[in-house]
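Hi Q.,

Before the meeting this afternoon, I wanted you to have the NDP prediction in hand. No need to reply - just skim if you have a minute. The sequence and ligand are here:
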Amino acid sequence: MADGTRALFMLFGGTGDLALRKLYPALFNLYKKGSLSKHFALLGLSRKELSDEEFRAKIMTSIADETADQQVATEFVSHFYWKSHDVNNMDHYQDLKKIGNQLDDQYQTGGNRVFYVSMAPRFFGIVAQNLQSQHVLSENGGFNRLVIEKPFGRDYQSAKELNDQLNSGFQENQIFRIDHYLGKETVEAIPVLRFGNPLLEAVWNQNYIKDVQITLAESLGVEDRAGYYDTAGALRDMIQNHTLQIVSYLAMDQPNSFVDTAIRAEKVKALESMEIYTDQGVKDNFVRGQYAGDEDHPDYRHESGVPVDSNNDTFAAGKIVFNNPRWGKTPFYIRSGKKLADKQGRVDIEFKKPLVDIFAKGTGTTGELQKNVLTLEIDPRVGLSLTINTKDSKQGLHTETVPLDYLQSDNRAAQVPLPYERLFHDILNGDGTYFASWPEVAAAWHFVDPVQQVWDTQQPDFPNYQQGSMGPTAADELLARDGNAWFYRGTK
Ligand code: NDP
Ligand code: BG6
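Predicted structure with the ligand bound:
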């Protein structure tokens, strides 16, 4: 068993929604697969007063769906401990230090510590600073890693302030900023598809690709998260992080090797070469939306917890232009929104048609060559498909388009690790490949801030799209102006 699998986790927000729904099941799966050694312990923390037994009962409930063997589950939860802890109370950190050292000895963790802050973002910096100032970090040669959730700031300035706070206790290579989209199978596969297949990489540029389209559509609305979502909106909630991370994997140049530092360097270069829009550029290249109601469902402004005069965006679409030799003339279109036609995460890459369509002019031929389109399906299906032109089977020469499809089988899907399982695995191995680095986050905010600033100062005409549609018509017009159209139109 590698040393990386020895660790003490200190989980701040140990009874929170994310921890109970996602984090414990993911850790349990790692434990079952043997990736987490018996030399691990988890100290759950929040203000609640719980006994270890009460905490373990919560974990049992949390992992129930993943539990086939009760004995393994019981063994797993025996590694869990609880401490009531207020992150603002300095005295409480002295207890953490003591308990941490005891658990290190008891479980022979090698002094490796993972501090996971699964709490509201305003606590990320406080915890990082206090861990450092109160000497809770391990000092005996083990690793100290800090894991934080989203959102990472609400603009560049607040993100920078947060990053400075984190840096007071942790170096960049010790900080793991979770973006759960980077734990999704298709997203993780992008570098392999590109750099493992000369067939694709050879044409992965403005000479052959007409446009790239990224759609992260949700059919759900704001649900019970208005408190957070109404202060964020689609641009901050889905575009600044998940969407631009996917853009960076699609747009980056080939790294020297597949190690996190080299990959991150290329991703940053790609993100930094996105054109930053002027106010006019924002108006021309970005579209926002808010969903309307129908007979059975309220509009966004009448969802529970949303102010009736809210101008928050529940949909955002935009065009990205790169100032670099690979992508100069190829637009990347992005869109994400709530209450759209389907839950659908995908990338559609449209290739250029041949300069001359000889079949359109040949004697006795009919039809017109179509674009080749490579589709990467992220959610809910995992797969890829390439549409190509071929001859149909009728008499004479007629061209038709057929898909070359790969769809992940149910059998294979059942073996795929959960996103948080992959990410925990990488944290334990110190591999930052599928986490957002600070320069990437900064570049993403530099791109998004001017859009948000224009939107904050101008009154929108909301609501402007129907529930169950694919967003406002302006999002279609955005592409139409370039002679393009969204490849994915929704199933409704
Ligand atoms: P919750 O509100 O469910 O949990 C917050 C936790 O923080 C609770 O355990 C709470 O326990 C604890 N807490 C609050 N104040 C203090 C304090 N002063 N000292 C110590 N503990 C405190 O949040 P979520 O689990 O939903 O979210 C956690 C993080 O994950 C956030 O950054 C969120 O943005 C992110 N996230 C969540 C997702 C989700 O699906 N839930 C999805 C993606 C990201 P107590 O009251 O007992 O102190
Ligand atoms: C989260 C956003 O980061 O991603 C949510 O805060 C959104 O608003 C969610 O619903 C979508 O994630 P997934 O994995 O369901 O596509």
